[in-house]
Design a protein that fits this description.
About 30% of the residues lie in helices and about 15% in strands. The chain is of the alpha/beta class. The longest helix is centred in the C-terminal third of the chain and has 13 residues.
Length: about 290
């Protein structure tokens, strides 16, 4: 099986987008294309023609609350770019679509039904020589009223605490070094925790195992076999986490939308929250767990 076996109502190819570029560049709100990055300079330098740009740090998060962007603000963001409740919304971005799948999860959380991921993301589009531009489109604004949130897609710390005593699968998608407790966060990250390690009982499958070297998703049987080998199956509830919810969103997308698992939630508070909780149980798998200097 290849990526073409995935339904194009959740995952579309670069060729699929190329065939519809005229629709994506039109003022008609039937189609909208969005690049989601952590560094706005990526979008400013080159992007898919017709795409608008979302800044993950400033537009999809509420830093004053350390939380998701609120429902009204998310609706305003979509509406400002001409996205209606019926728009076919295609998302892509950097880091093998980390931030695009986070936005996808947010769209589903707030109730946008027709949202899809461009397979391979920004890197694949550029490296394969598909057309780009630095022109920024300006679409007529519309009113957008989110129908969510739909809480069954999201896990909170209370849900994780309850999961410790149930059959829920806790899935850590961070690096091996983070999982073992050797480091608290990847190098250069400013948003971090006081303690290192992982949630007790959590199994580990690195987020990158979802994708090939070119950033496109692995075939479904490869993903299903890998997760089954780690004990992640559709007959159990699963909570995925990372550091701040972006890496875990790509695993949430793979399990929920590509493999069709029905009971997967993204714990967006992730290690930044759990590793800072007073008294939260933590496991380490190293004789020298990382301790921050004080």
């Amino acid at each position: 099986m290849t990526r073409e076996d995935y339904p194009d109502d959740v995952l579309v190819s670069a060729d699929w987008v190329t065939e519809r570029l005229d629709a994506f560049r039109a003022d008609d709100p039937a189609y909208r294309l969005v690049e989601v990055d952590v560094n706005p300079a990526f979008y400013e330098t080159a992007h898919v023609p017709g795409a608008v740009g979302f800044d993950w740090q400033t537009q999809l998060r509420a830093d004053d609350r350390c939380d998701l962007v609120g429902s009204a603000a998310f609706g305003d963001l979509l509406g400002a770019h001409g996205v209606t409740e019926d728009t076919t919304l295609v998302l892509y971005g950097d880091n093998a679509n980390w931030f695009a799948t986070y936005c996808y999860w947010l769209c589903r959380y707030y109730g946008h039904e027709d949202v899809r991921i461009l397979d391979g993301g920004r890197r694949y589009w550029l490296e394969e020589g598909f057309p780009t531009t630095d022109a920024v489109p300006d679409y007529p604004a519309v009113a957008y009223d989110p129908s969510g949130p739909f809480q069954h897609l999201r896990a909170y710390r209370e849900d994780v605490l309850r999961a410790l005593d149930t059959g829920t699968t806790l899935l850590d998608v961070r690096t091996e070094e983070e999982y073992r407790g050797e480091v608290i966060a990847p190098p250069g990250m400013t948003e971090t925790a006081r303690r290192a390690g992982h949630i007790p009982g959590a199994t580990h499958v690195l987020w990158a195992e979802n994708v090939r070297a070119d950033g496109t998703f692995r075939p479904p049987e490869k993903l299903r076999d890998r997760y089954a080998a780690a004990g992640v199956t559709d007959d159990r509830e699963t909570i995925v986490y990372c550091r701040i919810g972006e890496r875990s969103s790509i695993t949430w997308f793979a399990l929920t939308e590509l493999l069709g698992y029905d009971h997967v939630r993204n714990y967006d508070g992730s290690w930044t929250e759990w590793g800072n909780l007073v008294g939260a149980p933590i496991e380490v798998e190293t004789d020298d767990p990382k301790r921050p200097s004080v």
